Structures are given as C-alpha cells and as structure tokens.
Fold this sequence. Notes:
The protein has helices at residues 9-14, 21-51, 72-83, 85-116, 122-132, 137-150, 157-161, 168-178, 183-191, 196-204, 209-224, 228-233, 242-247, 257-291. By secondary structure, it is mainly alpha-helical. It has a domain at 86-230 and 265-291: MetI-like (MetI-like fold, Orthogonal Bundle).
Amino acid sequence: MSPTSAPTPAAARTRPRTRPLPARLGRGAVLLALALGAVVSLVPFVWMLIASTHSSSELFHSPPPFLPGGDLLRNLAHLQQSIGFGRVLLNSLGIAVVYTALSSVLSAMCGYGLAKYRFRGRGLLLGLVLATMMIPLQVLLVPLFQMMASVGWIDSYQAVILPFLANSFGILLMRQGFLDFPDELLESARIDGSGELRTFYQVVLPCVRPQLGALVIFTFMGQWNSFIWPLLMLNTEDKYTVPVALNTLTGLTHVDYSGLMLGSLLATLPLVLLFLLFQRQFVAGLLGGALKG
C-alpha cells in the first residue's frame, strides 16, 4: 500500500475523534461557570471558619480579618458556657433522628399504599396530599399550638416531632419510587405466603433505596434546621435545639457574632456528613423520581 493510500475502515474507527472548537469552548465555559459557582458557594463556609477564630470586635475592623485567628478555643468555651452547646447539639440530633426514622417509614408506607393498592377515593386522597403542600406553615401555627396545649404537650419533644410526621413531600416522593415496581413480584411474594408487611419491608423497600436515601436527607435537614415550631414549643433551656439556642446569642444590645459563626459552623457538620454518606442515593433518588410518571 502506498503512503498516500486511504486508511482502512478499521483504522478510521480507531482514530480518536476531535471535538470541534465551538463544542470545546462551550464545554470550557460550562466548567468555568461550575468552578465559579463552587467557589462562591464555599465563601460563606470559609468566612464562618475565619470568624469563629476571632473575637466579635475583631470582625468589625477595617479591613476585616482574612486569616484564621487564635480565639477558637476561647469562643468554643464561651459557647459551651453560654448555651450548653454540647447538650443542645444532642437534643437536635435526637429529635432529628427520631423524626427522620418515623417520618420516613410513614411516608414510605403511605406512598406504597397510594401506588400499589386500588381503592375507592385514592385519587381524591392523592389530591388532598398535594393540596397540603400549598398550605403555609404560618397558617397552621395557631391551631397546632392550641392542640398541643389542650393535650398538655407544651415544652415536650413529642410536640416537636409528632405534628409533622405525615410529610406530603415524602409521601409523593416514595409514591413515585413505587410506581414502576412490578406487580408480578408482589403476587409471587403473596403466593409464597409472605404477609403484606413482610413483603413491604423485605421485597419492596430494598428496591427503592435511592428514593429512601433522598427522603432521609431532606427529612433530616428539614427537622435539623427547624426553628419556628421548636421555638414555640420548647420553653426550658435544657430542651432547646441548636437553632433555638443560637437565637439566644442575639440580644437587644449585644450580639455574639463569633459564637454565632462557630455554632453555625458546628451545626453544619452533621448535615455535611449525612450528605456524604447518602449522596449517591440522593442523586439517584431525585433523578428516579423526576423520570417516573
């Protein structure tokens, strides 16, 4: 074969394809935008880290500090002394874990029932679940407060946890995950003598782990960051959650900005760890729920 002969089809297929210049420029612009977005999103966390190592007065110097200082241990000791941060952190963790476990199981069971059981009024019930998502929380505060006062649950953890266990978003998310589960597997499990609860927990639930992981993250974050309802329900300082306790650092004449920054930074760590543990299920669950009809 002469040097100027055309390459064989096999050689042409193995030749690496070169992206056209406009496509490469567009991809580079997208990557640059994503990098800038990541940097901008990290700025608040970097500032919280820097501010938590300085005193409150140093934060208002001109120019403000851009490097960590040496007051981290002092601020941590003052935070523990002023609000008992370790105690309120355990309070928030206990409430969030219990609420997440109960609400996730309840949402999964309700979503499974709406997806796989045929009964009269199912469409109406689904519409009511959707309608509750349009009711603002502020509208429910007064009647819920009266209900909790009537049963004597003011200043108790059950008043913080129980009223919001039925999460309409979680029910809809789990329903979308159960819609494509094959009915034949359910019939096979029933023929083999498996009860409904056993079929649900051992056959159905493991197949929707992505949606369940996304629900766990959303539910935990919502309860961990909840402020208005725990503020209304909890009157004893020993029972405060992290957002309520940090709010006490803001007074009429003095604000402990260093304590607020340090407390906020420490309060984000459980959320970051939870997302790192369930990030794969979180992304898969959101994509799965979006693509299913």
